[in-house]
Amino acid sequence: MLISRRRLLQATGLLAVAPGISLAEAGSVKDTYYEVLLRHTRWAETQYDAVEGRYRRTDFGFAVVLGNAVLLTRGSYDAALAGVGKDVLRQRTLATIRHFAASNVLAGGTEWGKTLFWDTTFQSYFVLAARLLWPDLDPPTRANVEAIARGQADYTTSLGTGNDPRSGGWTPNGLIGGHRGDTKLEEMGVYAQALAPGLAWHGDGPGWREAFGRWSRNEAGLPAADLANPSTVDEVPISANTATNLHDTFIVENHGSFGPHYQSELWRTSGRNAVHFLLAGRPLPEVLTRQPNGELLWRTVLATMSDAGEPLMPMVDDREHLYGRDVIPLAFRSTVLRDPMAAHAEAALASRLLAYQAHPPVHRLAKFSGEAKYEPEARAELAISYLLHELRPPVTPAPDFFARAAITIDHGVEPGLLTHQSAAAWAGTVTKPGFTKFAWQPAHDDWLFKISGTTPMLLPPAAVATRNTVVYQRVRDGFDGTASLLAFADGFAGTATLPTGTIVCVLPRPGRVDVHNIAMPGMPGLTGSRTYTGAAGRATVRAREQFRVDELTFATTTARHVRMVGVRPHPTYGYSLFDFEVGGGLARGKPTTASSFDTGMEPVKATDDDPATRWAVARAERGRADSWLAVDLGAATAFSRVRLRWETAAAGAYRIETSPDGVTWTAVAEHPRPDLSTRGWLDVDGRAGFVARAGEPITVQGDTITLPAGIVEGYTRADLRSIAAQPAPECPARVRASTADGFLTLFNLSDAASTGTVRLSGTRLYRGTQVTTANGTDYVLDLPAATARVEAPWFTARNIPAGITAVVHDARRVTFRGGPARFTLTHRDGTSLPVVLGRAERTVTMPGVKAFPFNDLALGRVTFPSSLLPPGMSDPAAAVDGEQHTAWTPGSNGRMVVDLGTSQAIGKVSLKWTDGQVPPHAVTYSVDGKAYGPATTARYVAVSTGWQPGHASLRSISVTGGEAG
Fold first, then answer.
1. 345 phi, psi to nearest 5 deg
2. Of 406, 661, 799, 875, which has the maximum CB count within 10 A?
3. Which bin fits 281, alpha (ψ -120 to 50), beta or left (φ > 0)?
């Protein structure tokens, strides 16, 4: 639960600087943005150069003028919060605008401007700031600002679809774009962004509008989708788009991997552009509110969204917790696009901004990652978000956000991401080279487990040889889930995700989970410590906010020599110690030696009692594991502790050894020592938990959890002790199984098909054949090589005797044999039936339930047109949603396309229409989404109609698989 603003400020010491401020316990998102801008002004003022009399050029520090302009022209300015008087802020802001307006290349200067990457982003902020303060600007400055907006639009238009020679390697790749490793969505957005201020403030110049529309429409271009859409945007057909900037599963790659921040560039640039038009009083270009493919792109962001309004970052190292940069896409979607889901995410992010801002370094908005230029950018985009809320009040946030966002998506081998957003957790199987991991965030808490970039989780980042995946969807399978089996050079690993938020992993070696542990008052979970509970007891690990200090105690020993011997160095810098203290200062000033040292960082610097000096290994020795530092105490001395204060180059592991003569050494202590070692189960701070089905213990060392090889289950909220006490399934060799949350998860860890039986406890019945035993069932196994699967617990049989064979055909029908017997069959939905079984077999059909899974390749698939629908057409997804009360209305001569995900052998296509005259129609097929015709193998199935008003609508399209070839 969030603390109040007053308590937050008291906790961080900020209340003392503004004792007369009246603080609301809760305010609107817009009010929060204003307060954050006020507090951020203290950082902004560090960019002021008193000698030059203006804000600095370095890292575009002068872009702080936009936040200043908002504070000077809106709201109730508070000098105590801002740390500077309003008149002073105004004078500095106007002086900066005057200078940089004149120094811009487009206005005749030489200092900055015109270059598309990245000057035009800051030009957009700069022009906006000037327009907010327009009445205060002198005529020459106004003329320069106008020259910037007009000149940039002219220059960008003059480039046509070519590169900007001033921007080096930054290029949109013409109108072709690119999506493998480096999306051109962002680059095309920047080209459009360079045109927006001119269009908004000066109307349409020669070719401006056409160029703006061309780049904007192509940002999220994907030909297979676009060519299925006859809609027009700003009177130009979407089918005229040519760019391919995202994978066909609507995932964006940058920095060589999936990056949700770049997924959001579509709305980041749109937010920057829209605010110019809104402030200028001009209509928004249609493309800003009707972006081709925008909603399918947004779906992927929702599929990785956290509880803090920031998407999770399983493959990007330098963008996690970059709150200031996350605001504007949400603000644009919640205000301009009126999206309730974005409004919810934005409110969640805004509720954390003050707590985030108060964390050291105080006042900043880009403090955990990113480049220096992100700080003035974050201020500018927060200011734009404030303006969007003022100009277009947001829609009411959606309730049940994560239930609505729930989805499973396999983005494919090349993007390397299998993801599951459930109501209770997020999970992803990442197989992109360099990022391999099983990532999991219980309760969507992006401050719980470290999952970003190359941070390992459960799996080491080893190369994946083969990847077998299954995606389960509620509409087709009756539940959402995933299963994957990964082959490595030295073995196999598997994972499954369940609709409950639980994960199941089979690990070939011990798995690692790193925990966020910092003190950030007001941020849920970040109290400055984490508490771990297991069968062996409880341990609280406090956050390390500064350089690490290790206090090691051991049985009293008597020795003359003592040393630290490294076992695992810092991966980059090796070993470096400020202080090496023995007993109560026994090492102070004593002769000290080391395996190596860097210039100016000699061994004695660790025992000189000066906290500012340190020993460090030689640069050439940084990779050496067994580097050492030794102290000669001068005589045999008794002691029982050592204290080591490390620099950034802190050892991951080391030993403390003693010696009577400096020749023979004995280990007396090791680091790290487990804070907790427990078997069976581990609760993590009351926020998540693990159950390990192995004999080895789970250990906690600092902020790292190590889980044993074998089956590991992860739960969001559960009685872990009780779960761990339940018997694990008994499996054939090379097969592993779990019954977490009642689901049967199976893994075949071999290159050969596996048969036999899996012995289960309880009377749950799963799809397939099982024979009841005195304590449970023997499930008949038939599992292809190197695969995994999940079976739902469709039925339980109460009071069923041993020896009964149950064949579950689907979620509705079960065939029993082996009677006579009487028992009660209960469906997962709670429906029960009494069963009387004679000597003959009997098939029981449960009334009122669906016969999951359905052999329908079209169910739940992506359909086109999407996002933008032609006049008269309803969403074609209604034809594949499995609901009988919904239907697709084609509109005049409408056409729809179903993407089956991969090329499939087509058996039969069935169309069901509502009552009325069925329109003329034809079904055609395509492998690439471009050329359609008859086929027996296809990925895309199109239904073309001659629909006219009065004709029936399409209730469903069903596609069943056929024999390949």
1. -60, -40
2. 406
3. left
